[in-house]
Amino acid sequence: MPEETDESPSVGPECSTESGNGKFPDTRWSLIVSARAENSVIVSRALQELCQLYWMPVYCYIRRRGSSPEDAEDLTQGFFAQFLQRQDFSTVKSEKGKLRSYLLKSVSHYLADQFDKRNALKRGGGQVVLSIDQASAEEGYQSQLEPRDDASPDLLFEKRWAVTLLGNVLNDLRENYDKQRKGLLFETLQPYLSGTAGESPLAEAAATLGMAERAVRVALFRLRRRYGEALRAAILETVVDPAEVDDELNYLFTVIRQ
Hints:
Layout: H1 28-34, H2 40-64, H3 69-85, H4 99-117, H5 134-144, H6 153-179, H7 183-194, H8 202-209, H9 213-236, H10 245-257
């Protein structure tokens, strides 16, 4: 068996999104769009999970459009309350099936409607549909303005989408490593995934872990592979057509670099 190395890119090797019968499997978003799920509880849970992922991007978008933190929180809750109640997602096709594009267009229309009617939700007057800490939401918004404060609402939405998605993937990996009692291994090698380790040699990680450098290289290779697979799986859940995963991955890293 050939020796594993750490030469793979940080997103890991490509993993197939095709099922055993040669057809693409249903994703969480494709089930919602096509209403193929027989169990409404499954659809409801899928919508809740997807909305949780996009709450912060929508909040940042609304804040950048000029709303106060309090109004932005209420408008975000109001938008998702309306989104969760909708049954018609036929317009998704016009956005090429991407949940990211669909939500950005939808929240823009929602704000126009709210401002035109002058009936934006008042503080404490709406139903809380997703549990979000407002202080954390505002902190997340402010963090996206640095080092540049001229970002457009659209760019801020997409930057927060990318950061949130990557953060969720890393948190899931961290929990998985913790369950295997490998938390120190993950925390030591994580900077080599994000690039924050810079030119730090693996010898330093090996010393921290009390492992041979060769063993650390193998561990890093495996972590990168799992990270790539987990990231692809996370993006797969937000597109209708799995063939769009590679384009979304490329776009995600383009946004992160901006």
